[in-house]
């Protein structure tokens, strides 16, 4: 099954590859793995107020996973956190015209967005006296 032009475009010219400072409290980091194939995706967001002002990803995986995460970072930049939470993998599947065997690659992107937001929210949930983890 050939990759669609949009997948190839993101694969050849991925947007927003890189890392943000994981220790910053304005940054949320999501790292997820696909049980289907072992591919791993890291997606990070930088939040100001309730808006995602920057997003970066690193994906160790197939072309569809790279394209899905590239597209995901494009979509979430400039969005409110809650709007980004509403992005579903089916929208990514449609945009990239992913075939059925590649649907889990888009799930990875949805999960990575959600994991990054969860991390951000947990970091900022309470100004609890004990700054718990450093991992
Ligand atoms: Fe081959 Fe993901 S299964 S790269
Ligand atoms: Fe497993 Fe794409 S993420 S094949």
TrEMBL record:
<dbReference type="InterPro" id="IPR002871">
    <property type="entry name" value="NIF_FeS_clus_asmbl_NifU_N"/>
</dbReference>
<comment type="similarity">
    <text>Belongs to the NifU family.</text>
</comment>
<protein>
    <recommendedName>
        <fullName>Iron-sulfur cluster assembly scaffold protein IscU</fullName>
    </recommendedName>
</protein>
<dbReference type="GO" id="GO:0016226">
    <property type="term" value="P:iron-sulfur cluster assembly"/>
</dbReference>
<keyword id="KW-0408">Iron</keyword>
<comment type="function">
    <text>A scaffold on which IscS assembles Fe-S clusters. It is likely that Fe-S cluster coordination is flexible as the role of this complex is to build and then hand off Fe-S clusters.</text>
</comment>
<feature type="domain" description="NIF system FeS cluster assembly NifU N-terminal">
    <location>
        <begin position="2"/>
        <end position="125"/>
    </location>
</feature>
<dbReference type="Pfam" id="PF01592">
    <property type="entry name" value="NifU_N"/>
</dbReference>
<dbReference type="InterPro" id="IPR011339">
    <property type="entry name" value="ISCU"/>
</dbReference>
<dbReference type="GO" id="GO:0005506">
    <property type="term" value="F:iron ion binding"/>
</dbReference>
<dbReference type="GO" id="GO:0051536">
    <property type="term" value="F:iron-sulfur cluster binding"/>
</dbReference>
<keyword id="KW-0479">Metal-binding</keyword>
């Amino acid at each position: 099954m050939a990759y669609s032009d949009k997948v190839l475009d993101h694969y050849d010219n991925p947007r927003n590859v890189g890392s943000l400072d994981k220790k910053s409290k304005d940054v949320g980091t999501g790292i997820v793995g696909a049980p289907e194939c072992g591919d791993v995706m890291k997606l990070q967001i930088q939040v100001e107020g309730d808006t995602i002002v920057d997003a970066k990803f690193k994906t160790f995986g197939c072309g569809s996973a790279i394209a899905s995460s590239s597209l995901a970072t494009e979509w979430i930049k400039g969005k409110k956190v809650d709007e980004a939470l509403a992005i579903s993998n089916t929208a990514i599947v449609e945009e990239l015209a992913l075939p059925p065997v590649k649907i889990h690659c888009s799930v990875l992107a949805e999960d990575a967005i959600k994991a990054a937001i969860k991390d951000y929210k947990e970091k900022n949930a309470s100004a609890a006296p004990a700054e718990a983890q450093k991992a």
